[in-house]
Amino acid sequence: MSKKVKIFVSCEEANHVCDKTQYHEASFWEKVKLNIHLLYCRACREYTQNNQKLTKVIKKSEVECLNSMVKDKMKAQFKTELEKHQF
Questions:
Q1: Rounded CA gap, 65 and 27, in Å?
Q2: Residue 35 falls within a domain, yes or no?
Q3: Which of 25, 33, 37, 40 is the S-S candidate for 14 at Cβ 3.0 to 4.6 Å?
């Protein structure tokens, strides 16, 4: 039996591969299929461009995340306050 290679993908699959590419998780063949799809699909080209812009903005941002101890403390405080206001 021969395996058919599917080089044309749906927009949904192309967007999924675009997202995977953003996080360096897409395989070589997925990237090839995505680039073929982008040749003829304007909507997915726009989606890809927006994804690339978002990635650049996030990388340039200097957002500091809370460490897990602070998050746990906030959750506990929230839970305590929530229990005070429930009937």
A1: 30
A2: yes
A3: 37
